[in-house]
Fold FAD-containing monooxygenase EthA.
Amino acid sequence: MGTDHYDVLIIGAGLSGVGMACRLAAACPGRRVGILERRRAMGGTWDLFRYPGVRSDSDMFTFGFGFRPWNDLKVLADGPSILKYIHDTARDYEVERLVRFGMRTTRASWSSGASRWTVAAEDEDGDEHVFTASFLVGCTGYYAYDQGFVPRFEGIESFQGEFIHPQHWPADLDWAGKRVVVIGSGATAMTLVPALARTAAHVTMLQRSPGYVLSVPSRDAISAALLHVLPARMVYGFARRRNIVLQRLLYRAAMRWPRRVRALLLAGVRRQLAGAASLDDFSPAYDPWTQRLCVVPDNDLFDALRAGGASVWTDTVDHFTPASVRLASGATLEADIVVCATGFQLQVLGGVALDVDGRARDPGALMTYKGVLLDGIPNAAVLFGYINASWTLKVDLAAQYVCRLLSWMDEQRVHVVVPRAPAGQATDACILDALKAGYVARGEAQLPRQGRDGPWRVSHRYEVDRRVLLDDPIDDGLLGFH
């Protein structure tokens, strides 16, 4: 057992954790910063997911860090490219040396008497290590790494083919010449289908209900042209600002004119399908952006459908047989491999048990303050990204706010900050309540709550969050300092 003290201790060395550490290195260079990472590598999601075709579902100019722009013409980058970008960023800011790998954080306890956190973590041999910290930052995302969500399927025990979840893709899986059924209709399923269809005998995407799909070019032709006449830094900076504006305009249009945006999206799908599949299989019953919009590069999903290597079924699983999936409609899908792309399990702080002065605190019962701090929890931040734009846009704003907060506390010679919500502010809504996805409905109890208004309510609006997190006064009367 060992004990180490840090001024700031970050849990998680994925995109959010690396970004947080880089912001601290630039804005608070004198602080001792540590990172606990449960796995043996940095990168989080982008190191964990290894399924064929894995890529971003947000454009990289906004998915990249504001302090280190994405300097490539790829719009939707592949997983290895994103992982390299994270590693290169960590190297440039000397972050990797801060990481304690193979440390699964299990408990975080705040002591008001000592004004510090005591954090327990287990290494891969099961030995416990203890760390202390003045400030704690959770950068673990919002899903459980150990296991994805798999529904209970009748007869699954009898299935003699391969049954896998994309979160744990077997490195030696061979799908060439085989019949593959991908269950799901989210970004993972729509990434897998064209990638598998290149060599599989046939790939069927089996969806319970359709989702909206938007095809975008894989390469930014405008930036490519501008690079001939302008400096690269200026071109990529412009691409980032342009895409932030376009994202916001699309989302706001969907909220204000849902029928018009729906008609535009479906018109694009109709053109790409060219009769290869029914438009009904791409016509959701919900309005645009009440669930996350799926983006595909260069029409690859539609190309696979038109080429005959893939097809779409809208139905539900009734039961499995040794060699097939039987559907509620009575149809049968023969399968050698079934990929269960049915989403993930929600989890906050990587499942860490939290307590303040010995009193257990459930993050799922606490309101967020400015989407960053937690009501009644001293010296702690939890970084969450956007659901209606690139994850990193919000995470980077939150990281800058944490740096502002710590610097202000130094100037004022205070050591502890605690958000205190007024009486009657709490609601039952979770921070992802605007997203009506199945995984949110299943696990919303795990997520922090929202308040009725002000800094206790998550805005999901980049232009508002920029002002609130980067410009508004730190001391607004809702934070207690001592």
